[in-house]
Amino acid sequence: MDKFNFHNNESVNHPPRGNLPIIQHLIGVYKLWSEYINHFPRTSRYTLGEKIDNLFIELIELVFMAGYASRDQKSVLIKRASDKLDLIKFFIKVAWEIKATDNKKFIALSEKLDAVGKMLGGWLRKLAS
User: What is the distance between the alpha carbons of residues 118 and 97, in angstroms, rounded to a whole number?
Assistant: First the structure.
């Protein structure tokens, strides 16, 4: 119950100051993705496109939660976020292979997702030290 006592500052995990840079980056990538999904063929938009969209939302949620989590929980959440990121990359590649998206969009998303991966990796290394 102490966790919910807002007057007891010792047991409360304080939010990160401002938004984490990785959150801002993820929101930017998601905005780009949300523009691209509208151009998916109808046959893929509500299957593969929706799957990728859900994974993006889960990834953003995990990273947000990691920002508030204890040190022990952070690494678990970041590893789960990294797994989600790998799935997004995989399904975007599948979308490119079935020609649901073009080369330009595939490259733009891939580059931005690689940057997110580097940020997650750096965060994990920082926690390990």
Answer: 25
